[in-house]
Design brief:
Elements (H helix, E strand, L loop, with lengths): L2 E7 L5 E4 L8 E2 L18 E10 L3 E10 L2 H4 L5
Parallel strand pairs: 1-5
Antiparallel strand pairs: 1-2, 3-4, 4-5
Length: 80
């Protein structure tokens, strides 16, 4: 049996396990939950998935979602 694990990796290198898959260029909050557009405010901490790696060990498949922070100036374009 192979266990599948999904991780988000923050820009500083910290990691957190999440229960769902993410896609490239998807916008997420600090907990790795996808953000719905349009945003209600540009004053939030938001990240974008810029790379996805998959590592396999004998009994585990680990999908790593690497995040980059989205600057406030860019977030303002997603506010209604």
């Amino acid at each position: 049996m192979i266990y599948k694990t999904n991780m988000i990796i923050y820009p500083e290198g910290d990691q957190q396990e999440i229960q769902h898959l993410l896609h490239i260029y998807e916008m997420v909050d600090v907990n790795g939950n996808p953000l719905s557009l349009p945003l209600s405010s540009g004053k939030i901490i938001a990240f974008r998935v810029y790379r996805i790696n998959t590592r396999q060990t004998r009994n585990e498949e680990i999908r790593e979602h690497h995040l980059e922070i989205i600057p406030v100036t860019e977030l303002e374009g997603y506010v209604r």
